[in-house]
Amino acid sequence: MSKSLRLILGDQLNHQHSWFQQVDPNIGYVLMEIRSETDYVTHHIQKVCAFFCAMRAFAQHLKDLGHTVHYFQLDQANNTHSFKGNIQLLVKEFVYTQIAYQEPDEYRLDQELAKLGSELGLPTEMVGSEHYYTSRQELAQFFKGKKTFLLESFYRAMRKKHNVLMQVNNEPVGDKWNFDADNRKPYDNKVPVPPIPNFAIDCTEIVQMLEKDGVKTMGSIPDNLLPHPITRAQSLKLLNLFVTEFLPWFGKYEDAMDTRFKQLFHSRFSFAMNVKLLSPMEVIEAVVRAYECQTIQIPLESVEGFIRQILGWREYMRGIYWLQMPEYATLNFLEHKRPLPSWFWTGETKMNCLKHSIGQSLDMAYAHHIQRLMIIGNFALLYGAHPDEVDAWYLGVYIDAIEWVEITNTRGMSQYADGGIVGSKPYVSSANYIQKMSNYCKGCYYNAKEKVGENACPFNSLYWHFYDRHQDKLAKNPRIGMAYVTLNKMNPTDREAIMKQAEKYIAGVEGL
Ligand SMILES: Cc1cc2nc3c(=O)[nH]c(=O)nc-3n(C[C@H](O)[C@H](O)[C@H](O)COP(=O)(O)OP(=O)(O)OC[C@H]3O[C@@H](n4cnc5c(N)ncnc54)[C@H](O)[C@@H]3O)c2cc1C
Ligand code: SF4
């Protein structure tokens, strides 16, 4: 009689997957905590705890439904710490005759699992993960023959294809595809920010296990309590809360930053979605339902802006990843080479914007998009950090960091190391933008208005240094033309002083 062993990866905790809809005594499931996954990069302690807590809770859920579940804890004596080794143990002990796994989201695991069948000498099947709107290859097919990969055209096609926020005449609701211009307001204290939901999951047992086993981590987990949701019920609670209390203001304050509010009106869904506790469809359906039923007033700019992140950016990044890997992980268009300063691991810098954005990343393994892009990534790019270093930091620090969505955002959108595949120009700014969109500059040691001098904001001189040193690669880009017009019109003495200031800051980066 055939017996099947089905592997579930840590980011495949999909309650709605067809695998789990029927209990079959000839099917067993396996989940594993293994060192190859804890050690391929230094992860934030909250990230490791969140994955292990969520996996353990998911295994328990399957057992409660009556499924046969094998679970390897990290400190279990017979754990071989490899997918192949642990599967071999189970095949031998429980006489499994075939293996199945779901399509992995990471290239590294895709390659490893593709070899499983031949290595184990057993029939092996890969099935879909039943999570995304699009298949791995859909974006590649959509842009076939094109030289550029415009998010906007992909997003519009997805809106039409999945009939999301569309009118019967196939035009977008509100007669506009994009409300970005309405989504760029600084936080003005006019609406109260709801408190961040804290799920306070006790992770003492896992923290002790990681310490005992010598797993290297970064960041902290105050009182061993994890603030993030790790079960489907908690994720659904977060979804309901977001739709009623945060969504109405999401659009307006999407790009705002404020020292008092770490999440502002963002959702913090990324972990729950990336491990598939929440599906993108159910999130979008909940948002559209709330907009249509009008029990609370939700502006279209918030609804469209939010849907764009999920149906647009999230699916787009996944498609780019599968189109471009493995080469993508080696791209370094601007040939940046510097190591990240050590305060990326402590948050101890006099630059208030970075102190807060890095500090909260280390405290809670979370920062919202604009902090990741326009503060931390902006600095790393202006300074000239090696994209490998930047990738490793982002992949480690955030609870939602899985390579397919981390690398496309970091190496691509943020560091322009792909030379313009994801973004048509580098996301850089001087202090002007940061001052406009946040309250960081008010309490800062540096002066946002100054380019040179003792307390001049480093972002100002580094901004011009960046354009100056990359003139050969960037000057022809029509989207950056204005920056070069300004740079080349600068009085030569001023220009030289700015460059010297930037070089001083680069050389003394540890003391900034
Ligand atoms: C340098 C950099 C690195 C990033 N690394 C990651 C990462 O490792 N994992 C990750 O999930 N996201 C990453 N992002 C995208 C985005 O910043 C996070 O998804 C978001 O901040 C998570 O917080 P939230 O759930 O509150 O998001 P919200 O602002 O509430 O957005 C809702 C959802 O939209 C999706 N989303 C939003 N922006 C993006 C985007 N650019 N790409 C893909 N999905 C998006 C996410 O699933 C998010 O949960 C990164 C962005 C940058 C600039
Ligand atoms: S002055 Fe410069 S370093 Fe300080 S918070 Fe503003 S942008 Fe950041």
Short description:
The protein contains 21 helices and 9 strands. With 512 residues, it is of the alpha/beta class. Iron/sulfur cluster is lined by residues 351-353, 431, 434-435, 440-441, 444, 446, 448, 457-459.
Topology:
Blueprint: E1 4-7, E2 27-32, H1 35-39, E3 43-44, H2 45-65, E4 68-72, H3 83-94, E5 98-102, H4 107-114, H5 116-120, E6 124-127, H6 138-142, H7 151-161, E7 201-202, H8 204-212, E8 217-218, E9 225-226, H9 232-250, H10 270-274, H11 280-293, H12 300-324, H13 352-364, H14 369-383, H15 387-397, H16 403-414, H17 431-437, H18 458-469, H19 471-474, H20 481-489, H21 492-507
Parallel strand pairs: 1-2, 1-5, 2-4, 3-8, 5-6
Antiparallel strand pairs: 7-9
Bound molecules: flavin-adenine dinucleotide and iron/sulfur cluster (SF4).
